[in-house]
């Protein structure tokens, strides 16, 4: 029947015309495909009725199962979202107190109420409400806290500062604000600065409620701490010689320490500063020092203020309310001995490091070492910060309470490095 030739390059490709046999084969294949499709169509359209019902029933059943699974998934998603929202509130402090419980003071409920942000959700933090600032551990002392918040609005506050301090020492810090007037104590006879630094303070201007001692004579007979033995006697005893006259080699003189500072010392922070004598000595040298203290067994805060100095009423478990790298000097003595696990001291040391500027001085003043292991632990901790040791002395002091016995103390002046 002939052929068609196609020249490609120098060769020729030839395609033979279709023969009768090949055409028949093609027709047979087409017929097979059509007949197969028709048979399949017939099989689906001519199924028995009961079979159709069975398929419909199964389909309906499957749809129901899928619907139930979808509903279950949606309920799980909703539950998870609620749990996440609750966790977020707990982390942000939204749910630290259950104000629905009975015997909760109404003022506490009002203070802890959430307030919507005036402009809606904050785009940066995602917070939609203002939450009252109150310590998370207050939940453990809810009854005492409710007692603290029971008062007459716009009336005089109860004489309960010792109750507030008890809450602070239990970790309920900060305390909630109150809408009452603190008891006024007439401050008659305050001396002008700088005479106030060393002039004896009148007992009449201090608050003695909640304290075992009611006068300075009682206080000066007590050993309130290792640094506060007779520390309220500014006229006699050793208090007016501290930091200018050494009793042992672990006592550094204040002028010697100031001479070690690079860039000068202008502002400082004293941790556990007793009656404020360190701040007084610094004030004589035109250095402003804030003294951290609580009124443990004595009116420390009022006494320090009466000397014309700055007391900060705060426990050492509270993060220091200062910005980073602001102090030229941090002074710490027995207040650094927080006890408990080493991690507790680490948290405190890192916060001290945070507020101390690069090149600033950390003065560790006669820290009592109960044993050699504690001294090694403290030494290893200090070395982790990479401070330069300007002075480092381990010495002994006679224990006035136990005659003939000497205690071991560590004193050091350390300079904070400039970290990259």
Describe, in short, the structure shown.
This protein is α/β, with parallel strands linked by helices.
List the helices and strands and how they pair.
Blueprint: E1 3-8, E2 11-16, H1 20-45, H2 49-92, H3 106-112, E3 115-116, E4 129-130, H4 142-148, H5 161-169, H6 216-219, H7 254-258, E5 267-271, H8 277-283, E6 288-293, H9 300-306, E7 310-313, E8 327-332, H10 342-355, E9 356-369, H11 372-384, E10 388-398, E11 406-415
Parallel strand pairs: 5-6, 5-8, 6-7, 8-9
Antiparallel strand pairs: 1-2, 3-4, 9-11, 10-11
Task: Describe the model.
With 420 residues, the chain is of the alpha/beta class. A hairpin with a 7-residue loop joins strand 10 (388-398) and strand 11 (406-415). It starts with a strand and ends in a 5-residue tail after the last strand. Among the domains are: 106-169, no CATH class; 195-415, Rossmann fold. It contains 11 helices and 11 strands. The chain is 34% helix and 17% strand. It has helices spanning 20-45, 49-92, 106-112, 142-148, 161-169, 216-219, 254-258, 277-283, 300-306, 342-355, 372-384, and strands spanning 3-8, 11-16, 115-116, 129-130, 267-271, 288-293, 310-313, 327-332, 356-369, 388-398, 406-415. The strands form 3 sheets. It has a 7-stranded mixed β-sheet with strand order 7-6-5-8-9-11-10. Strands 1-2 form a two-stranded antiparallel sheet. A two-stranded antiparallel ribbon has the order 3-4. One of its GO terms (molecular function) is methyltransferase activity. InterPro entries: Prob_Methyltransferase, Put_SAM_MeTrfase, SAM-dependent_MTases_sf. Residues 70-97 form a coiled coil. The chain crosses the membrane at residues 24-44. It comes from Hevea brasiliensis (Para rubber tree).
């Amino acid at each position: 029947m002939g052929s068609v030739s196609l020249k490609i390059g120098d060769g020729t490709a030839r395609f033979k015309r279709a023969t009768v046999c090949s055409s028949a084969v093609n027709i047979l294949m087409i017929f097979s495909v059509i007949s197969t499709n028709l048979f399949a169509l017939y099989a689906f359209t001519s199924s028995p009725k009961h079979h159709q019902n069975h398929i419909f029933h199964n389909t309906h059943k499957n749809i129901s199962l899928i619907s139930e699974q979808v509903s279950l998934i949606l309920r799980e998603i909703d539950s998870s979202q609620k749990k996440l929202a609750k966790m977020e509130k707990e982390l942000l402090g939204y749910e630290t107190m259950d104000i629905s419980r009975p015997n909760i003071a109404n003022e506490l409920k009002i203070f802890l109420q959430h307030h919507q942000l005036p402009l809606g959700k904050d785009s940066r933090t995602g917070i939609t409400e203002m939450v009252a600032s109150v310590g998370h551990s207050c939940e453990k002392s809810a009854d005492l806290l409710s007692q603290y918040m029971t008062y007459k609005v716009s009336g005089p506050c109860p004489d309960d500062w010792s109750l507030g301090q008890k809450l602070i020492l239990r970790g309920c810090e900060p305390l909630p604000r109150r809408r009452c007037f603190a008891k006024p104590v007439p401050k008659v006879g305050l001396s002008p600065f700088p005479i106030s630094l060393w002039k004896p303070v009148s007992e009449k201007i201090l608050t003695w409620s909640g304290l075992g001692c009611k006068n300075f004579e009682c206080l000066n007979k007590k050993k309130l701490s290792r640094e506060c033995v007779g520390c309220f006697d500014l006229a006699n005893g050793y208090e007016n010689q501290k930091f200018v006259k050494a009793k042992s080699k672990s006592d550094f003189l204040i002028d010697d320490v100031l001479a070690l500072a690079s860039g000068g010392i202008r502002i400082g922070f004293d941790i556990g500063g007793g009656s404020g004598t360190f701040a007084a000595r610094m004030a004589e040298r035109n250095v402003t020092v804030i003294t951290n203290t609580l009124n443990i067994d004595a009116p420390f805060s009022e006494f320090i203020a009466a000397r014309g100095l700055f007391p900060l009423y705060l426990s050492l478990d509270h993060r220091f309310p200062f910005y980073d790298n602001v102090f030229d000097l941090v002074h710490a003595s027995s207040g650094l001995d927080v006890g408990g696990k080493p991690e507790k001291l680490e948290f405190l040391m890192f916060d001290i490091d945070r507020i101390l500027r690069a090149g600033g001085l950390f003065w560790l003043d006669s820290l009592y070492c109960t044993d050699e292991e504690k001294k090694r632990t403290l030494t290893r901790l200090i070395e982790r910060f990479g401070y330069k040791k300007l002075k480092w002395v381990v010495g002994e002091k006679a224990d006035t309470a136990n005659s003939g016995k000497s205690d071991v103390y560590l004193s050091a002046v350390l300079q904070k490095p400039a970290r990259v």
